[in-house]
Design brief:
339 residues, alpha+beta, Heat Shock Protein 90, 2 domains, four-stranded antiparallel sheet, 13 strands, globular
Amino acid sequence: MLESGHNFSSDICTDSIINDLDTNAINIFREKWHGHSGNERLTNLADEQLLIDCGAITDKGVTYAALILFGKQEIIQKKLHHAEVIFEYRPKEAAGPAAQREEFGAGFYIYYDRIWELVNLHNDDQYYTDGFYKHSVKSYYEDVVRESLLNAVSHRDYRLGGGIFIRQYQSRLVIESPGGLPHGITIENILNRQNARNKLIADIFKLCGLVERSGQGMNLIYESAIKNAKPLPDFNGSDMYFVMLTLTGQVISTDMLSYIKKIDEERLNKITMDDYLLLVSLFTQKGLASIDITQFEHLVELEIVRITGDSTELVNGEKVFVIENQSAVNRRSIGSKHR
């Protein structure tokens, strides 16, 4: 088993020098860091000092983080050839060559924007009606796709061969990265625990605002799925050598989508991840029997859910759910109430 807790991105890449790094990638990072921090000093800082200040270069040499984020393609091919990202668009599930394929072997900041451009080329609109009005939602949202890429780049195990694959199908996006989940992280606790496998990469991302706090990216991905009534992120197919994240683009409940869109921004900003997961259970009727009624207290305070003597109901909504023995929400609906 590979050593747990080792921060590969902080290791020194033997014989690498600053000339192995791409000036364009460094300047893209400089602009993002300046834009996020407002620090005018960064605009005129020499490249080497900029990289020293962010930790990509130390007095011992050029780190692997510097190579992964800023490296020239020909240098990465020689020294860390599997640190690549491959995008494929496959409109059909059948095996065979992809309809579109692009490989990225240069530093991360060179290809970062291009990945979203490729996904967005086949980003269909989906429609739902609310009374007399017709609204649309995208299959995939930019912040979610970017967060998924950031997670893959900062958490993959660079000591294992193979690149990061992003495969876009007609209704799902699959991101596969080498290395299982980081030490101590499971699918069950992934929203509550953090352990960056490549902490230096994650820290550099934070400097330029690509991530707000380590470990929050997955919360954003889950929250976006729920707000847009999509299935929760799926990790089926993951094992100790690969993480496979599937994002589904199709809306699973137009009732849920319409209801969440009606919640005003002030209350929406107060909803916690646990609250969102409870709403998913109500709308999908999954896992309700194991939920204690007290877990809905915050949603009651926000006037999103109302609890009566024998039911849990959505305020201003139409679905009504039985409470089993006054302590848990039952799996079956008992009908609808119209107001």
